[in-house]
Amino acid sequence: xxxxxxxxAQDDVQAVFWWRKAxxxxxxxxxxxxxxxxxxxxxxxxxxxRALQWFRKAxxxxYADAENALANxxxxxxxxxxxDALALEWFRRAxxxxNATAQNNLGIGYALGRGTARDDxxxxxWFRKAxNLGSAAAQNNLGTMYQRGRALPKDDGLALQWFRRAxxxxYAxxxxxxxxxxxxxxxxxxxENQAIMWFKKAAxxxxxxxxDHLQVMCDDGVSAACS
Length: 227
Hints:
The chain is an all-alpha fold. The chain contains twelve helices and no strands.
């Protein structure tokens, strides 16, 4: 309530106070929320070691969001020595509980060979699970696997379908990918206006490659890309 300002004024310090009380009694969700406050420095001084401590406590109780968060700390080396194998194991624990973010992260691990041998087929399996749960990042990654023919028959049509699903959720990288397909005409009708529309959406979402691409088009005399 205090963290989100529901029914009471938003107050991070009060939120930390109450989450700490519950966390000290072993409440997994409170442990996760307290860890997140330390991770972001909300209501407390930012402290990665305390974030790690509380994420671990929640993760060890099987709290999927905490398992994913702990994995991310191992993957990035934030607050702990970087360890891709441990990161992958914690991503797997969360993924097996149906956590879409962790499923996508596990897919990335297999696609890049981080913490394990590269295995595109397993990567696709996890991307698809997360994509079907609505993860825009996974939908974009699955589209990329179809586009590149990695463990799947190369299929620009299916790539476009998955890119569009992510793009329509506002995922800037996918919006850029949709724009590229319309610009090139790969399986879609070549449509410069559609391409520019998606590039602009991606640019508005902060995607620098889309902004640069529009500038190149503008410099090449495509006036619609200039505005």
